[in-house]
Amino acid sequence: MPQASKETKTSSCDDENCPFHGSLSIRGTTLTGKVVSDKMHKNVVVQIDFLQHFPKYKRYGRKRSKIHAHNPPCIGAAKGDNVKITECRPLSKTVSFVVVRKTGGV
């Protein structure tokens, strides 16, 4: 069931893997990133940029990671959008996150 931290969306969808209109529960990690690909059906690839500390050199280095996430039709994130993704149960071999909000555009 949807948790209190989820925002309710006005448009409806018939996707069973939608955290707002379906039965998918979200839990765990919440990340913010940029959509770099939206070519898959109802899925997107989100790039997460972060800093990694290298103790030997006492410096930080920029790193990035690409995460596959389910994109419900009611949110409809497109390439270039900044999105917030949250962990859910595994939906496929590579998809364990779902897009919960668009936080900005290009």
Q: How would you sum up this structure in a few lines?
A:
Helices cover 0% and strands 48% of the residues. With 106 residues, the chain is mainly β.
Question: What does this 3D model show about the protein?
Answer:
It is built from no helices and five strands. It has 106 residues and is an all-beta fold. The chain has one domain: OB fold (Dihydrolipoamide Acetyltransferase, E2P) (Beta Barrel). Strands 1-2-3-5-4 form a five-stranded mixed beta barrel. β2 and β3 form a beta hairpin. It is elongated. The chain starts with 25 loop residues before the first strand and ends with a strand. The N terminus is likely disordered.
Descriptive keywords:
single chain, 106 residues, mainly beta, OB fold (Dihydrolipoamide Acetyltransferase, E2P), 5-stranded mixed beta barrel, 48% strand, elongated, disordered N terminus
